[in-house]
Amino acid sequence: MYFEDFFVGFTFTTKSRMLGEEEIITFAKQYDPQPFHIDKVAAKESIYGGIIASGFHTMTTAFALSLETGLWAEASMGSPGMEEVRWFKPVRPGDTLTVRAEVISSEASKSRADIGRTGMLYQTFNQDGEEVMRWRTIHLLKRLP
Amino acid sequence: MYFEDFFVGFTFTTKSRMLGEEEIITFAKQYDPQPFHIDKVAAKESIYGGIIASGFHTMTTAFALSLETGLWAEASMGSPGMEEVRWFKPVRPGDTLTVRAEVISSEASKSRADIGRTGMLYQTFNQDGEEVMRWRTIHLLKRLP
Prior knowledge:
Number of helices of chain A: 4
Largest interface: A-B, 30 and 30 residues
CATH superfamily of chain A: Hotdog Thioesterase
Largest sheet of chain A: 5 strands, antiparallel
CATH topology of chain A: Thiol Ester Dehydrase, Chain A
Oligomer: homodimer
Shape of chain A: elongated
């Protein structure tokens, strides 16, 4: 799929992935070592009442699920950034995440004829259908050869 | 340090960390397995001309550097989100990252007397002083006991 295939309103849903406690703690020890992510006792005494996943872990898991669809394999050339990153609800050990993605804008580059800018909304849901996270981003995509 | 200590205009600079090629590829294989992050040959033929770090890897490295200062140890209660996430320049194997953080807003919670909302700007620089990434975020912080 190329830039032209990601028309505004195109949506897809990813496979699901469960985040286990060990994985949550391992990630957080390296990248977000706050007590409520890595220390069961401290987490229990925190406002969260137990271990929760780092928001960066939720984000990277969601992004990996999106890549796993294979939809980006041909066209993706990276991203200049993200907007409106929101963590709505904690992700707890054993929660299963699924991502819904929607194309919300599509604009051919003015400076490069072979590139387009595709705006996406990524929403991540838990097993109860609750939205735990969202963000908007721009993908730089190759145009049809 | 508590909410009251993070006054508007307070800044700090972190230690520096070098991102090696193996670490870059290992992170990306798990969370951002795009060719220009994990495949040296494909990366060389891409617009980047070689392996570059996942933007999520730059972000999590920067966040870990901020936590390493110890400034957040007492007060941090997580974050509701981020704005204006920007990747300005590629981070390449061997690049050394340093983070400058600045308090840009400070607001006591209206609903909870023991919490404040502290707005931060995080800027990440490489060894040449070039800004490679930035984002804005809100930290939920405990107020002075």
